[in-house]
Amino acid sequence: MAADQDLAVSCRGLLKTYGTGEAMVTALQGVDLDVRQGELMMLVGPSGCGKTTLISVMAGILDQSEGDCRVFGQDLMHLRNHAKLAFRARNIGFVFQAYNLLPTLTAAENVTVPLLINGVGRKEALKKAEQVLEQVGLGTRTRSLPSQLSGGQQQRVAIARAIIHEPRLIVCDEPTSALDHETGHKVMELLKGIAMGRDRTLVIVTHDARIFEFADRIAEMDDGRVTRVVTNSSQLH
């Protein structure tokens, strides 16, 4: 087991329930998982097994019902709202499966949002956004609105937005689901390069077996639990 100072995320006994009484649904059932700094970990498993709930807890978007989740040693659940938002703004990038782009903003303007939240000036933020969009292959679409972009292009805008502020932890929900094989591999090479080159950590939820090769470790989930962690996709069921 890695030493605490080497961990980006440490989860112990995570329980997450929704609803009450007969309508209560248990999404996480005692998850234990460590994610090391500088690694790319993938979460795999059937739909509804708790993968998105788990990364949402890691990112501070959801609070767990029970258990402990520490991100770079910080217990997000017990931070006041302002402190939690500030921690997330500095340290976490999230790629949502539904992209969550603002429809009235251009691609570049969408990508600037994390920088603006962190106090970067608009002109400087736009310049950086154009550079990052170039990295993800959208250098010619910086002024396009989301409605003028394909699903795959919107997904790449969402990835650019998640990485622009150079967060220590990047959490992605199905980042290649709308991409063809070649573009998906290019995006994964970019994400892998970010993790390896700058000691950043990525946690990626995916059903896309084509990208398993990019993982340092793969955590299998089923029925709200992490059932095992492997280092080679050939070990998967």
Annotate the secondary structure layout:
Blueprint: E1 7-18, E2 25-36, E3 40-44, H1 51-58, E4 66-71, E5 74-75, H2 81-91, E6 92-95, H3 107-117, H4 122-135, H5 151-163, E7 169-173, H6 181-198, E8 201-205, E9 217-222, E10 225-230
Parallel strand pairs: 3-8, 3-9, 6-7, 7-8
Antiparallel strand pairs: 1-2, 1-4, 4-5, 9-10
Helix pairs in contact: 3-4, 3-5, 4-5
In summary, what is this structure?
It contains 6 helices and 10 strands; from the N terminus they run βββαββαβαααβαβββ. The chain has helices at residues 51-58, 81-91, 107-117, 122-135, 151-163, 181-198, and strands spanning 7-18, 25-36, 40-44, 66-71, 74-75, 92-95, 169-173, 201-205, 217-222, 225-230.
Protein architecture, described:
This protein has 237 residues and is α/β, with parallel strands linked by helices. The protein has one domain: P-loop containing nucleotide triphosphate hydrolases (Rossmann fold), CATH 3.40.50.300. Helix content is 32%, strand content 27%. It has helices at 51-58, 81-91, 107-117, 122-135, 151-163, 181-198; strands at 7-18, 25-36, 40-44, 66-71, 74-75, 92-95, 169-173, 201-205, 217-222, 225-230. The strands form two sheets. A six-stranded mixed sheet has the order 6-7-8-3-9-10. Strands 2-1-4-5 form a four-stranded antiparallel sheet, with helices on one face. A hairpin with a 2-residue loop joins strand 9 and strand 10 (225-230). Helix 3 (107-117) packs across helix 4, helix 3 runs parallel beside helix 5 (151-163) and helix 4 (122-135) packs across helix 5. The longest helix is centred in the C-terminal third of the chain and has 18 residues, at 181-198. The chain is globular and about 45 Å long.
